[in-house]
Write a structure and sequence with these properties.
Blueprint: H1 2-25, H2 29-34, H3 38-47, H4 49-52, H5 66-79, H6 91-116, H7 131-148, H8 150-154, H9 157-160, H10 170-199, H11 206-216, H12 220-256, H13 263-276, H14 280-283, H15 286-294, H16 297-314, E1 318-319, H17 341-351, H18 355-363, H19 370-376, H20 378-396, E2 409-410, H21 416-426, H22 438-442, E3 444-447, E4 453-456
Antiparallel strand pairs: 1-2, 3-4
Length: 458
């Protein structure tokens, strides 16, 4: 339980500091970095034994079966219209998703405890580990869960930049998210414990639990229950794919190739890639797959440390926002031929010591030596080591240029950007140095109310 609470609090704090630039300067992660299978359950519930007993026409080398491949492509077809919804209009769909998945979670909890006549024995079972082994196991559990959320924490600014006010995201990050992380984890433990009493084995994956229910009985009641539970998970997975995969990747691709790719096209490119890599092959060895996923913190925690260090300590929460959109030597962030050696060196320092332990974890040869222990705290080491080294490198090697083509934007004065947006809409062109003056006369880069670059022709 302590690990769950720790995960909730640490994730909340990281989300706040990583999302602060987005909520105050309206900048996404990509700009700042310049300075699933619930469908099968539903189909089985609808079609019944005919789908369960569907003949498999695929060879064993395919690592999947006909029913699963049909479910996968049905999911893709359902997902395809979602990228048409602009990110700023996803609040209502996400509210509906939250209600459905919450109802699903508590519905499964009520069924499991009722069917097992109690919460089961798991919560009363003592740990098989003791002493340092138990302590390091708890630490690794803490960092592996935080590490699995590393991508979402790092990209917080992609979403906080849509906040109505600079502090609007804080309640969700600091209060709502930790509470529901804890509640979800507790429900998962109780459901797994009760299900073990019913089926004689621990089933941690909720999708597999629904399949076990259907394998045990395909009565109308079981089919109806698993259908609605599967529907809740389906909607949840669609929302996660849209938010964490589709839109985030679309934003990155749009920033890299803005002339040819927008967010929507980036989503569809990712969908094609998702099909091409045959994801069912990764599920055949879930242990290695999960290890690799949790190991993303090896690479992403140093990147988070760089973003936080640069914004809060090196820049003092001040950016030449317009220069972030300038890709030539006139930008304050061009550094040396467009390359900042401080960021790269700090990332290496935060990432390299974690690689031996990461490789041993994938190979299953961990023995508890020093490299393994460093990997067990990979997120915390990568974040704090990179944050510190990056700041120290700027002390040792100060940036030669501090001026750029656009005025500084102070975090405390970010509301001025909203006035720029209103002026540009009204066509007055007054009231802001971004909209008139030297930039307008000579041709330069300004910023609108959401951090988007505007080029003024001479």
């Amino acid at each position: 339980m302590g690990v769950v609470v720790g995960v909730a609090l640490i994730s909340a704090l990281i989300a706040v500091v990583a999302g602060w630039p987005g909520s105050h300067l309206y900048l996404g992660f990509t700009v700042l970095s310049r300075a699933s299978w619930a469908v099968k359950i539903i189909l089985r519930a609808i079609i019944g034994p005919k789908f369960v007993n569907l003949a498999n026409t695929l060879p064993a080398s395919a690592n999947t079966d006909t029913a699963s491949i049909i479910s996968f492509f049905v999911f893709i077809i359902i997902f395809l219209p979602l990228p048409m919804i602009p990110p700023e209009k996803l609040q209502l769909p996400f509210r509906i998703t939250f209600i459905m998945i919450t109802a699903t979670m508590f519905g499964m909890l009520g069924w499991a405890i009722n069917a097992a006549n109690g919460p089961g024995e798991l919560i009363h079972t003592p740990s098989s580990k003791h002493g340092s082994a138990l302590s390091w196991g708890a630490v690794y559990g803490l960092q592996s869960i935080v590490g699995s959320q590393a991508s979402g924490c790092l990209g917080q600014s992609d979403w906080t930049r849509y906040a109505k006010t600079p502090n609007a995201a804080l309640f969700g990050q600091l209060v709502a998210a930790p509470i529901f992380i804890i509640v979800t984890a507790v429900c998962g433990i109780l459901i797994t414990s009760a299900a073990a009493t019913i089926y004689g084995e621990y089933i941690w994956n909720p999708f597999e639990l629904l399949l076990a229910i259907q394998d045990h009985s395909l009565s109308p009641a079981a089919r109806a229950g698993t259908f609605f539970a599967g529907l809740g998970f389906l909607v949840s997975q669609l929302a996660l794919c849209q938010m964490l995969n589709g839109i985030s990747t679309g934003m990155d691709m749009a920033a890299l190739c803005p002339k040819w790719i927008n967010i929507r096209r980036g989503c569809y490119i990712l969908t094609v890639i998702a099909i091409a890599i045959c994801p069912w092959n990764y599920v055949t060895n879930p242990g290695t797959f999960i290890t690799v996923l949790s190991g993303w913190s090896v690479f992403l925690s140093p990147m988070t440390g760089i973003v936080v260090s640069d914004y809060f300590f090196v820049r003092g929460r001040q950016y030449h926002v317009g220069d972030l959109y300038v890709g030539n030597p006139s930008s304050a962030y061009w550094y040396t031929a467009g390359f900042n050696f401080r960021g790269f060196l700090a990332w290496i320092v935060g990432m390299a010591p974690l690689l031996p332990g990461f490789a041993r974890a994938i190979q299953g040869t961990s023995s508890g030596n020093g490299w393994d222990h460093i990997y067990q705290i990979s997120y915390f080491y990568g974040f704090f080591a990179t944050l510190t080294v990056y700041a120290l490198l700027y002390v040792a090697f100060p940036q030669e240029r501090q001026h750029g083509t656009s005025p500084f934007v102070l975090a405390m004065h970010a509301e001025m950007l909203e006035g720029v947006e209103e002026d540009s809409r009204s066509g007055s062109g007054s009231g802001s140095g971004f909209a008139k003056g030297e930039d307008e006369e000579k041709g330069g880069v300004g910023v609108d109310g959401r951090g988007a670059a505007k080029t003024f022709a001479a």
